[in-house]
Amino acid sequence: MYEHLVSFRFKEELTPEKEQELLDSLYSFKGRIPGLIDVTAGINIKVEPENAHGFTLGLRVTFETLEALRAYGPHPAHQEFVKKLDGILDQVVVMDYAVSR
After folding, report:
1. CB-based contact 29:97 (threshold 8 Å)
2. Which helix (H) or strand (E) holds 79?
3. Cα→Cα distances 100→57, 84, 97, Å
4. Are 61 and 36 in contact (CB under 8 A)?
5. SS3 86
6. What residue ranges do the domains of the chain occupy?
């Protein structure tokens, strides 16, 4: 299995409605993207605000195979989500790794 972790920082604070729209879009991946096992996403509750660096939305996607992870980027469902970020995204951090256990 492979994990895909993403943290998003936006140009300005998002409204609760926009946050929910993005979360709904992320959760819609399940059942639509082949090889995707699980999705979790949420808004940072800022337990450690000094370490958040302005990142407010987190995403974790689990894939069955490396091939499924590679196919995720160009998938239409993912590209729909990417379009929702146009003009509002300041920075994104992505980490992908094989699950060893």
Report:
1. no
2. helix 76-84
3. 26, 33, 9
4. yes
5. coil
6. 1-58
- Cβ–Cβ under 8 Å, residues 42 and 55: no
Both structure tokens of 63: 């894939």
State pTM to two decimals: 0.90
What residues have CB less than 8 Å from 74, skipping those under 6 apart? Answer: none
| Structure-token pair, residue 31 | 């059942």
Report the DSSP beta bridge partners of residue 43: 57
C-alpha neighbours within 13 Å on the C-beta side of residue 22: 24
In which residue are the tokens 């337990």 written?
47
Q: How would you write the pLDDT of the chain (101 residues) with one tens digit per residue?
A: 999 999 999 999 999 999 999 999 999 999 999 999 999 999 998 778 787 898 999 999 999 999 999 999 999 999 999 999 999 999 999 999 999 87
Cα–Cα nearest to 77, from 39, 28, 37: 28
CA–CA separation, 72 and 76 (whole Å): 9
